Amino acid sequence: MSWLIVGEGALSGLITAEMASQGLPYYVKTRGQAARPLAYCNRQQQWLPSFQPETWRGEPVSTIFAAIKAYQVSDFIAEWRTWEVSTVPLILSYNGMLLDEQQLLPDVTAHLVCTTAAERIRADDFDRLSYHGSGLNNLGWALPSAARAHDSEGQQAELLATLERTLAPVHWVDNIRQLRWEKLAINCLINPFTVIYRCRNGRLAELNLEQRQQQLAAEIVLLARQFGVTLELENLLKKTQYIIAQTASNRSSTLVDVLSGRPTEMDYLTGFVVAQSERCGLAAPHHQLLLEQFYQSLTAPADPQ
Ligand code: KPL
């Protein structure tokens, strides 16, 4: 049966284009009435003729895949609860974390964490996408109860099989919560700096940020512990440098948002760390300072490099 793809970013576009070109059944849900035609340069670096994605009008579907911005999650969940198809597995992917995640997302089936995927899909807009190599994609049950509710092994194999055909490589992992925290940390150590310095990711390696990144990482390690998640400082710093190198020529999603005049996800990245640390009675002065610098930099923009 068809998948329903929600979201207008590169990841949703990639899955839509792969499903369409492989003849897999799907629908898309966009904010407008109907999806716009999509042109796609595939893994073989061939531009496929532009096609009109199938717009969802309430038809039955077997899985919902939503790759959206963190600030859209709460409205999306409220809308999704009103759909007849809200009982099918819901795979949710977004950057950062929400303060009230436990209450807001209890019925989410699986989380997808893409460490570099979006940066390797170039989106001129939702209607022109090109593929530039695979990223690191991990999928896992959001909560143990999701595994029980969805006949774990059969569902897991089915979800993974479709994602492997469309987003490959995708790994099913048991520690998705841990990986979401790691991704949060990596985004906090990269994204705000790319906006403050108006630079591509690779430039961060030349800006002597190691000490600041270490202080920031240490604050996240302490906070994660309050949530029962153990992160290792050295490992976070190493992974951050690896991602910076892997995505050197790309702009971070936050810089892209700023340059396109869209809202950013900072409240769900650095802002999340500041607010949660406060809630837990922890000090996070380095994130606090970074957040202030980030917002100041929005009013004094420099030329992008
Ligand atoms: O996820 C990213 C983002 O831009 O949001 C990183 C990994 C930092 C790469 O750009």
Report on the architecture of this protein:
With 305 residues, this protein is an alpha/beta fold. The chain has two domains: 3-174, NAD(P)-binding Rossmann-like Domain (Rossmann fold); 178-297, N-(1-d-carboxylethyl)-l-norvaline Dehydrogenase, domain 2, CATH 1.10.1040. Helices cover 43% and strands 16% of the residues. It is built from eleven helices and eleven strands. The chain has helices at residues 10-22, 73-80, 101-104, 144-149, 152-167, 176-196, 210-226, 233-246, 253-259, 270-279, 285-299, and strands at 3-6, 26-29, 38-41, 47-51, 63-67, 90-93, 110-114, 121-125, 128-131, 137-141, 170-172. The strands form two sheets. The protein has a seven-stranded mixed beta sheet with strand order 2-1-5-6-7-10-11, sandwiched between helices. The chain has a four-stranded mixed beta sheet with strand order 4-3-9-8, with helices on one face. The model has no long low-confidence stretch (mean pLDDT 90). The structure holds ketopantoate.
- Mean pLDDT value: 90
State the low-pLDDT regions, or none: none
Biggest β-sheet: strands ordered side by side in the sheet? 2-1-5-6-7-10-11
Structure ligands: ketopantoate
Major β-sheet, in short?
A: 7 strands, mixed
**Approximate shape:** globular
State the helix count. Answer: 11
CATH architecture of the largest domain: 3-Layer(aba) Sandwich
Level of helix content? Answer: 40-55%
Give the topology string: H per helix, E per strand: EHEEEEHEHEEEEHHEHHHHHH
